[in-house]
Amino acid sequence: MWIESIAPAHATGELKDLYERIGGARGGVAQIHQAQSLNPRVLAVHFDLYKALMFQPSALSRADREALAVVVSRANLCAYCAAHHAAALSQLGEQSSLPQELFEWAARLARAPETASEADIAALRAAGLTDRAILDAVLTVAYFSYANRLVLALGLETEPGFESTCRPHPNNSI
Predict the structure, then answer these.
(1) What is d(CA 145, CA 160) in angstroms, rounded to the nearest whole number?
(2) CA nearest 47: which of 37, 59, 60, 33?
(3) What is the pLDDT of residues 108-117, one digit of tens each?
């Protein structure tokens, strides 16, 4: 990591409480969380957005959203996020049932969002997706594009044992 951060062992106050919440929910405090430690309020909002996108009821299954996370992260050349979410997908023990067209669109949207068009939405509908599924896919692509840029801009590397922070199912603290 190319900036200063506060490790969980040195956290106090609000940040310590937040790390305990994240660690309890995710199985550990990954580098992407520690990278935001100098701004705990943003970290808290980021974690809440992540939970809402990935763990709340959706027209897309958890496997669908994890698969999208991997596709977007690979399209953005973010090995860190691709590894974390491939591990979460593997731990789920199920595969995405989304049509290939959605993954191709997601990779293109991640790399070149200015190419998005109404025709894309029509094609996704024709592939069987509802508007709610399309919205959730757009939100997932946008979120992981953000997370990928955060990781890449701060020089995060996949930490040893990172799989323990990739808990695919929420516990009561999420």
Answers:
(1) 24
(2) 33
(3) 999 999 999 9
Q: Report the Cα–Cα distance between both ends of the chain, in Å, rounded.
A: 26
Output the 3-class SS for the chain.
CCCCCCCHHHCCHHHHHHHHHHHHHHCCCCHHHHCCCCCHHHHHHHHHHHHHHHHCCCCCCHHHHHHHHHHHHHHCCCHHHHHHHHHHHHHHCCCCCCCHHHHHHHHHHHHCHHHCCHHHHHHHHHCCCCHHHHHHHHHHHHHHHHHHHHHHHHCCCCCCCHHHHCCCCCCCCC
The domain tally of the chain equals 1
Report the CATH number at residue 146. 1.20.1290.10
How far is residue 99's CA from residue 154's CA, in Å, rounded to a whole number? 33
Residue 121 lies in a domain: yes
Q: In terms of residue numbers, what domain contains 135? A: 58-165
pTM, two decimal places: 0.88
- Is residue 95 situated within a structural domain? yes
What are the pLDDT digits (tens) for 1-36? 999 999 999 999 999 999 988 887 667 788 899 999
